[in-house]
């Protein structure tokens, strides 16, 4: 491990890569603060930039920096104007916004920054310990196990989708998988399902799809409902005075941060659970175990109520890198986009990554430490200035968001048809959002589709049919687990509903 | 019928078309040598489409009960009349226009028009600010993408650049 760390240090501590971390974090914070552009959209916009860089380590460091920055930016806007840019920072606004209303926005931001920093750093340490261990197990896997593992991942994502959503999430996954079969695959030299359209020959672009699924519907919603974007008054954004916290407050949040970083990390590792669940659960747990008088404070500006979701969501973000880097299976929409970026950079994530290209893995880990440090020492003091972006009137903001969405899809491909596909899918995605269909499973299915089919085909060829299912016990066990995961939510849903009611009290 | 079931119906129809192609038309084009392989280009789609049909049917028939949504923060179809649907439709049309005009007009002019018309649709009437912001943004983005990143973006209309 020490050797790996040194490799990582020497890769990460070059001028370019440090520039990537700092730049990525700043851009991420800046855009993450804006309503309508969550981490997924920002990363999708940055992918063409990352691909132009060429060096996979530098590109991944940049994208990871953007990711942390965006999550941090999201918490900033939920504290300052009660408008969480991202679902995972909704819980932060429960206590962050009341504290800001009391004129202590600076304190809330500091607590959030320290909690994010600690959550991210503890997460990175855990990632460093667990990922190589998991990867060495995964090296024993054959294509049939990979196939089964991806099925488990996809069904877990559906299973965690929420009450009454499992069927819809699964259907979206299937739709994503079906969309992935359009075009000329790597396996067969024949175009499939292109209906003779030349532009579909190479399949749908994943950046286009990511933009259409996330950035565009959010932008359309901003247009539809002007109350959704609370920017433009600029009155709340400017009141950040004192960034200090007292020693007593520091002592009270330390155990919270420790507990929630651990819990958040492990929730983040599970496919489909992710930062949002980690932050809500972290908030609920800390509220339940706090003393009577501290419980009273929750929802009215408790520092513990800010520290809990913030450390949990950052640790969970880091945790979600574990399945991505060790198995090549993304557990969330964001890591799915990162996987797409890695594939575009000719890197295949999976257990071989740590053997074949250890510098990439370790550089990412080091960049996580660096990124967290940059957020704490560089971004926090800059927040009062960055927050000015919240004062941009929506008449200007929305055309820009739409423009960046278009650019994200265009500059990678230089193909105007891609823009028409973007708008078409964007309208479909908006309808799906109206009807409560989750969209992340579609994108994850789309990105995993070719990998799933490759492993399925290889296993079929090796065993001359579907015999691999019962001839390899591990495969069978994983496939049974996948079925259990899909069936289980009926039971889980009832508990989740009770839990959600518990959280809603603190609202 | 609620929107989610209508969408499930649409997906079901897509699945049926996809399934028809996978089961009946795709294999006809397969060279005979490929037919000895245990895996055909149509194998995986054939598996997928069964899942797709079953799931869309289960939603269409309402087998899984979804809870009543009372989330005020999220968007709600029943409040559609309160929303600015006209603006949204106009902006989408503007995006289509941008896609069609990007090549003929060149990046700079198309982007300038997109940003100004976009603000105009949203109700902005300070024309000078609007024009300045759009011009600076179009120029900066072009400079960053083309010059700094080295990704080619044709800046001028076809009659200036000759293509």
β-strand number of chain A: 2
Strand element count of chain B? 0
The general outline of chain A is: globular
Q: What percentage of the residues of chain A does DSSP assign to strands (E)?
A: under 5%
Biggest sheet layout of chain A: 2 strands, antiparallel
Return the string of H and E elements of chain A: HHHHHHHEEHHHHHHHHHHHHHHH
Major sheet of chain B: none
Question: Which bin fits the share of residues in helices of chain B?
Answer: 55-70%
Instruction: Work out the radius of gyration of chain A.
Output: 22 Å
Structural class of chain B: mainly alpha
| Share in helix of chain A | over 70%
Number of domains of chain A: 1
Could you give the distance between the termini of chain A?
Answer: 44 Å
Tally of helical runs of chain A: 22
Total domain count of chain B:
2
**What is the rounded distance between the termini of chain B?**
51 Å
Short account of what is shown:
The complex is a heterodimer of chains A (507) and B (163). Chain A has one domain.
């Amino acid at each position: 491990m020490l050797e790996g760390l040194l490799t990582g240090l020497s890769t990460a501590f070059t001028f370019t890569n440090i520039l990537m971390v700092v730049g990525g974090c700043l851009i991420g914070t800046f855009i993450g603060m804006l309503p309508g552009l969550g981490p997924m959209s920002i990363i999708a916009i940055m992918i063409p930039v990352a691909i132009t860089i060429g060096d996979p380590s530098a590109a991944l460091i940049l994208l990871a920096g953007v990711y942390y920055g965006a999550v941090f930016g999201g918490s900033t806007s939920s504290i300052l104007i009660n408008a969480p840019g991202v679902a995972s920072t909704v819980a932060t606004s429960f206590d962050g916004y009341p504290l800001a209303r009391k004129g202590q926005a600076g304190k809330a931001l500091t607590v959030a920054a320290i909690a994010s920093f600690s959550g991210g750093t503890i997460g990175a340490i855990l990632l460093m310990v667990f990922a190589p261990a998991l990867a060495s197990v995964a090296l024993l896997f054959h294509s049939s196990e990979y196939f089964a593992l991806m099925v488990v991942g996809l069904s877990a994502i559906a299973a965690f989708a929420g009450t009454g959503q499992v069927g819809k999430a699964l259907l979206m996954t299937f739709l994503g998988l079906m969309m992935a079969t359009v075009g000329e695959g790597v396996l067969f030299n024949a175009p499939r399902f292109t209906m003779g359209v030349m532009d579909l020959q190479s399949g749908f672009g994943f950046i286009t799809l990511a933009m259409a699924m996330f950035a565009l519907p959010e932008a359309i919603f901003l247009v539809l409902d002007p109350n959704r974007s609370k920017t433009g008054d600029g009155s709340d954004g400017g009141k950040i005075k004192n960034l200090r916290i007292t020693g007593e407050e520091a002592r009270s949040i330390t155990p919270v941060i420790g507990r929630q970083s651990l819990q958040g990390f492990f929730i983040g590792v599970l496919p489909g659970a992710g930062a949002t669940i980690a932050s809500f659960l972290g908030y609920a747990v800390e509220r339940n175990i706090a003393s009577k008088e501290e419980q009273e404070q929750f929802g009215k500006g408790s520092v513990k109520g800010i520290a809990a979701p913030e450390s949990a969501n950052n640790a969970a973000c880091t945790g979600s890198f574990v399945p991505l880097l060790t198995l090549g299976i993304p557990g969330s929409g964001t890591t799915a986009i990162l996987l797409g970026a890695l594939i575009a950079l000719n890197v295949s994530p999976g257990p071989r990554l740590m053997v074949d290209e250890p510098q990439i893995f370790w550089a990412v880990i080091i960049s996580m430490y660096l990124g967290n440090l940059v957020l704490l020492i560089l971004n926090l003091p800059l927040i009062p200035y960055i927050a000015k972006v919240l004062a941009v009137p929506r008449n200007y903001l929305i055309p820009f968001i739409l423009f960046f969405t278009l650019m994200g899809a265009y500059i990678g491909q230089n193909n105007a048809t891609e823009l028409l596909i973007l708008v078409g899918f964007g309208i479909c995605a908006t309808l799906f959002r109206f009807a409560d269909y989750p969209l992340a499973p579609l994108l994850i299915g789309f990105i995993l589709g070719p990998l799933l089919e490759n492993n399925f085909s290889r296993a079929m060829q090796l065993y001359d049919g579907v015999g691999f299912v019962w001839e390899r016990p591990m495969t069978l066990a994983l496939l049974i687990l996948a079925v259990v995961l899909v069936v289980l939510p009926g039971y889980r849903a009832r508990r989740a509903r009770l839990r959600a009611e518990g959280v809603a009290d603190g609202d | 019928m609620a929107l989610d079931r209508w969408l499930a119906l649409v997906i079901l129809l897509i699945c049926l078309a996809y399934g028809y192609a996978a089961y009946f038309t795709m294999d006809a084009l397969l060279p005979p040598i490929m037919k000895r392989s245990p895996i055909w280009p149509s194998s995986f789609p054939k598996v997928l489409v069964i899942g797709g049909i079953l799931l869309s049917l289960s939603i269409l028939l309402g087998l899984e009960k979804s809870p009543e949504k009372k989330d005020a923060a999220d968007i709600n179809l029943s409040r559609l009349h309160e929303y600015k649907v006209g603006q949204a439709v106009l902006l989408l049309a503007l995006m289509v226009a941008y896609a069609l005009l990007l090549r003929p007009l060149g990046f700079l002019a198309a982007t300038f028009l997109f940003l100004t018309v976009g603000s105009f649709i949203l109700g902005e009437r300070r024309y000078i600010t609007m024009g300045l912001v759009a011009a600076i943004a179009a120029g900066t983005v072009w400079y960053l993408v083309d010059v700094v990143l080295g990704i080619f973006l044709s800046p001028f209309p076809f009659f200036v650049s000759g293509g």
